[in-house]
Design goal:
Nucleotidyltransferase, domain 5, alpha/beta, five-stranded mixed β-sheet, single chain, 147 residues
Length: 147
């Protein structure tokens, strides 16, 4: 084994960084974010109703039912200046003769004070439904927040 010297070639050191693995990792992360981003949406698209209707110009004043924040109901008849507070049983007895007199043109508008919960408005509409009133509208104030 006299002549068995193995000579190894010395490789020259590279001073470059191999960026291919970093590009692969970046592309994998990009794909993960692209897939998961639409799933993270927590909002719900809501299409709000809009109306171009003008204010009603009726010959006769409507009957107005007012829902108060404490759950009481008020009734303002066409000749009254101020609404009177009534309970649900009185509502039907007061509306029955007016409904009989006006027939199909009988219209009731439901209003509520600004801080009244919407449940009180729905309760007032249920009372009107129980009183066989079919033409019910919501009364709005166009001065404060209308655009």
């Amino acid at each position: 084994m006299a002549g068995g010297i193995i000579h190894r070639k010395r490789r020259k050191l590279k001073s470059e960084i191999n960026v291919v693995p970093y590009i692969d990792v970046m592309l994998v992360l990009l794909i993960i974010f692209m897939v998961t981003a639409p799933l993270l949406t927590l909002s719900v698209d809501v299409k709000l109703p809009s109306s171009q209707a003008r204010a009603t110009q009726d010959r006769q004043d409507p009957v107005i039912v007012i829902a108060y924040p404490d759950g009481r109901l008020g009734l303002k008849l066409p000749g009254d200046e101020r609404p009177r507070v009534i309970d649900t049983a009185q509502m039907e007895t007061l509306l029955a003769p007016i409904r009989a007199q006006q027939g199909n043109d009988f219209r009731v508008m439901v209003a509520a004070q600004g801080d009244a919960p919407y449940q009180n408005v729905l309760d007032a509409m249920d009372v009107l439904r129980a009183a066989n009133v079919s033409n019910v509208s919501l009364l709005t104030d166009s001065g404060s927040n209308a655009r």
